[in-house]
Design a protein that fits this description.
424 residues, alpha+beta, Helix Hairpins, BirA Bifunctional Protein, domain 2, 2 domains, 8-stranded mixed sheet, 3-stranded antiparallel sheet, elongated, RNA-binding
Length: 424
RNA sequence: GGAGAAAUGGCAGAGUGGUCGAUUGCGGCGGUCUUGAAAACCGUUGUCCGGGCGACUGGACCGGGGGUUCGAAUCCCUCUUUCUCCGCCA
């Protein structure tokens, strides 16, 4: 959520820069500024009346104390009218601020100046890449065949127990999950991240804080009886640790990470593209989150990008890093890098991480602020997060790229975690 | 799940209808003293929204929401959370 102060001070710039996201903000901004003006007028008038009422009450108080009963009764006479007017004003104020809030919430985050314009993924900028795309042997097959062949992931069983998109990992398949999770967490710890094990259902306030609510409730599983949401990513609970918190500048940046299962309804997105592990309702992910000083948040972003890249290097996967263009970026992001690994049998790039700087967009919803040492006023923090990493597509590409006639080779770095070198 | 008690500033903890944004202690910050530090003493110390170039100034906030009243931290309703006891239990 953009701050009203920023909108008030730079309306033209907001409109201009949101064009990069293909968003025409002209009407909303005009409407917001209008409501803001109205809201302030109403508040001034309402405050004046409240001040008058407060004074009257105080006077009546001292009259009663002195036993001047009649005088007090006299003073009460004008109050009804004032209160009536006050009620009108406060209703109008509530309406104006509520509407203003609803309008502001519709504005996406402003992209960083370095974000390229563009309509879709085609316009994303490949920043760099690494690894080697393997030559597969003639009998090579996609991962959905491999998992059956070696009986390591079972979709049918998942359908029986739960439904489509809830795979059951078995034997070495299950152990591979655990190995990857531990590997990612250990690497994160080396990178300075504190491990968090958060709840995997959250309340409405948390959903609002990170921007899932009110817009994207269709994406989340909702536990109706308790009004809780199953998290689509650990970003939600881990970032919400800092909701309504005022930090010291010296504490920044704060680095946290957590492994959680993630739940996504993915309504209406099933089809040929999303076969096998490419898209699931439940999957495992290690997420890294930073709370940063606004002047240094892009250093944090770079640090996070380098961290994610190091994971892909260690897993020996062919990857590329793309900076998303305006049209492909999420509503809440100011700058996003996607990481893709090449899945050799499917012959496509699969997104395995999205690492973003949200600047103050989430922090404003969260009311996550910091104070410079000795300063009186608070400033919004910047929040960032990134997958490090999401498992299913890593597994898909790992299985496909490393298949041999003898079985699937486990990357060197992972062997200490799996305890086996080959899935056969 | 049942019964009872409670929720106040960073923390502890007063305050049961009238000048209370709130006594006090601790902590924090600044100062005096000291070569320096500690102790002692003095001062200061919340968040948010308005108005003003500014000095400054109006308003809101005592778990959330609603109500009674000229006036609510204080009374009433409701929700949430915590604690104690009972029940159940990884």
């Amino acid at each position: 959520m953009l701050t009203i102060n920023f909108l008030r001070e730079h309306p033209a710039a907001v409109i201009e820069r949101l064009k990069i996201k293909n968003f025409d903000a002209t009407q909303i901004v005009a409407h917001v500024l209008d409501l803001d003006r109205r809201r302030r007028e109403l508040q001034s008038e309402g405050d004046a009346i409240q001040a008058e009422l407060n004074n009257l009450s105080r006077e009546i108080g001292s009259m009663m104390k002195d036993g001047r009963k009649e005088e007090a009764e006299d003073a009460k006479k004008g109050i009804g009218k004032l209160k009536e007017r006050q009620k009108q004003l406060s209703d109008a104020f509530d309406a104006a601020s509520g509407e203003m809030q609803n309008e502001i919430i519709r504005l996406p985050n402003i992209p960083h100046p370095r974000v390229a314009p563009g309509k879709s993924a085609e316009d994303n900028v490949v920043v760099r890449g690494g690894g080697r795309i393997p030559e597969l042997y003639p009998g090579a097959v996609p991962h959905w065949d491999l998992i059956k062949k070696y009986d390591i992931i079972d979709f049918e069983l998942g359908i029986k127990i739960t439904g489509a998109g809830f795979p059951v990992y078995k034997g070495k398949g299950a152990k591979l999950q655990r190995a990857l999770i531990n590997f990612f967490l250990d690497e994160g710890e080396k990178g300075g991240y504190r491990e968090i094990e958060p709840p995997i259902v959250v309340n409405e306030d948390s959903g609002f804080g990170t921007g899932q609510l009110p817009d994207k409730e269709g994406q989340m599983y909702h536990v109706g009886i308790d009004n809780l949401y199953m998290i689509p990513t650990a970003e939600v609970p881990i970032t919400n640790i800092y909701r309504d918190v005022i930090l010291e500048a010296a504490d920044l940046p704060i680095r946290n990470m957590g492994y959680t299962p993630c739940f996504r309804r993915e309504a209406g997105s099933w089809g040929a593209h999303v076969r096998g592990l490419n898209r699931l309702h439940q999957f495992d992910k290690v997420e890294i989150v930073q709370i940063a000083h606004p002047e240094r948040s892009y250093d944090s972003l770079e640090e996070m990008v380098n961290h994610v890249e190091s994971l892909l290097k260690k897993l020996d996967l062919p990857y590329r890093i793309v900076r998303l263009c305006g049209g492909d970026m999420s509503f809440t992001s100011a700058m996003t890098y996607d990481f893709e690994v090449y899945s050799a049998a499917q012959q496509r790039w699969l997104e395995v991480s999205s690492t973003s700087n949200f600047e103050s967009f989430q922090a404003n919803r969260l009311k996550c602020r910091f104070r410079e040492k000795g300063a009186k006023q608070t400033t919004l923090c910047h929040t960032l997060n990134g997958s490090a990493l999401a498992l299913p597509r890593i597994v898909a590409s790992l299985l496909e790229n490393n298949q041999t006639p003898e079985g699937i080779r486990i990357p060197e770095a992972l062997i200490p975690y799996t305890g086996f070198e080959l899935i056969s």
